[in-house]
Amino acid sequence: MTIREQHTVTMDKIVALCKRRGFVFPSAEIYGGFANAYDFGPLGVELKRNVRDHWWRTMVQSRDDVVGLEGAIITNPRVWVASGHVGSFTDPLVECRNCHNRFRADNLPGATIGDGGTVAVPPDTPCPHCGQRGQFTEPRDFNMMFKTFVGVVEEEATVAYLPPETAQSMFINFANVQTTARKKLPFGIAQIRKSFRNEITPGNFIFRTREFEQMELEYFVRPGTEDEWFAYWRQARMDWYRAIGIRAENLRFYDTPTAELAHYSKGTTDIQYRYPFGWGELEGIASRGDYDLRHHIEASGEQLSYFDEETREHIVPYVVEPAAGLDRTLLILLLDAYDEEPDNQGLRTVLRLAPAIAPVKAAILPLAKKEPLTALARDLHAGLKRRYLVQYDDTGNIGRRYRRQDEIGTPFCVTVDFDSLDDHAVTVRDRDSMAQDRVPIAELEAFLREKIEG
Ligand code: GAP
């Protein structure tokens, strides 16, 4: 058994590491916090940016058939009526008459979901909060969209909704994008943006929050070809999680049962991750058919179709949608990379993040805080930071400095010692193996680039 299999990573360890090292903080901590809201710290924003960039490079820039978009967050409320979200984007809510806590009915033990999505809760179910049996109200539909008001005079203000998904921007701009980008079917429109849902039961740190970021692709195909594209995107998305370093044994596909499908979906496969609290959704890949475009055509009266030059016909394309959560991706990267191993100072905590994803790529560490060592080290730092996020650290003993970098996942520590002044070389320590290589200073940047960019 490897050391890695002996320890178990817990959510508590990840939450504590995130706080201690500046990845994620509880939001508004100085005011006592705000339930299920988080602020991303200096390392969290770098990690997020690296994931976003990797996704965008893979899904948009490296392909000829996908283009990007950034839609307004606050837009015409008719979008959300036509999309079906005003009418159907609901979760079944029950309240315990004894303790007045509220729960999602479909998450209660023994709950069953019938055809059409109606939820039945067994009459003697105990409340997960107070333990009283049989106290639940009948499930009622609770709409998860946040409402706000646009306009300065309250009586005249119009209701607007915060978007619960990014996807609708792509549908309402289908014609704008298709004609300006001159794309032929099949092609896709991608977006990374915040979404908002008034979740009944948020929780598990950044797994489920009310404000989160999505990375979505709407891929438009000819009707009749959707099954093959669905199979293609399922696999492509699984490959992406492997490419950012997630272990295969912690990933699986899960086909959503028909009764649990979202109102727009003809079929959804989730990519699930093995979280410390069990298997759970990471990404949804949905076959949306022409649901969205048809509804917007009907509601707006506009022509949101594709003109096929060959057949001279207007086609309403079908849509295959891989929809990923950025915050969840961050969480699984941390869970998957977290490791502890015994060493001569007790226990070494190390984040084994892929070098391309790690927030800090290298640390420059002069062995002693003395000139001319520090001057040489600062020179190296100034050169490397033009390309990468690289830290400079000359405080404390070298062992402690290595540990600090291990804990934030920095793949390489570059030590500048007294020999460096004569042999013009530095020692590069590998985070995972702790092996040390002597590398000529003139070759350092190329050496790191090869390891980081592959
Ligand atoms: N446009 C399709 C759509 O939004 P979804 O399965 O509801 O599909 C896609 O959401 C992904 O967004 C999820 O797999 C998850 O990663 C992320 N996500 C959804 N709700 C979330 C929440 N409340 N907190 C964090 N991430 C969430």
By DSSP, the count of extended strands is 25
Q: In the CATH hierarchy, what is the class of the largest domain?
A: Alpha Beta
- Report how far the terminal alpha carbons are from each other: 30 Å
CATH topology of the largest domain: BirA Bifunctional Protein, domain 2
- Outline the biggest β-sheet: 7 strands, mixed
Helix content: 25-40%
| Average pLDDT rating | 95
Description:
This protein has 454 residues and is α+β, with helices and mostly antiparallel strands. The protein has 14 helices and 25 strands. The chain has helices at 3-6, 11-21, 42-61, 78-82, 85-88, 167-172, 174-181, 226-243, 291-300, 326-337, 373-384, 398-408, 418-423, 444-453, and strands spanning 24-26, 38-40, 66-68, 90-95, 102-104, 112-113, 119-120, 140-143, 147-150, 158-161, 187-196, 211-221, 251-255, 267-275, 278-289, 306-308, 313-315, 318-325, 338-343, 346-351, 362-366, 390-392, 412-416, 425-430, 436-440. A 7-stranded mixed beta sheet has the order 3-11-12-18-15-14-13, sandwiched between helices. Strands 22-21-23-24-25 form a 5-stranded mixed beta sheet, sandwiched between helices. Strands 5-4-8 form a 3-stranded antiparallel beta sheet. It is globular and about 75 Å long. It starts with a helix and ends with a helix. Glycyl-adenosine-5'-phosphate (GAP) binds at residues 165, 167, 197, 199, 208-209, 212, 214, 216, 281-284, 321, 323-325, 327-328.
Structure in a nutshell:
This protein is α+β, with helices and mostly antiparallel strands and 454 residues long. It has three domains: 6-74 and 166-335, BirA Bifunctional Protein, domain 2, CATH 3.30.930; 90-143; 360-453, Rossmann fold (3-Layer(aba) Sandwich), CATH 3.40.50.800.
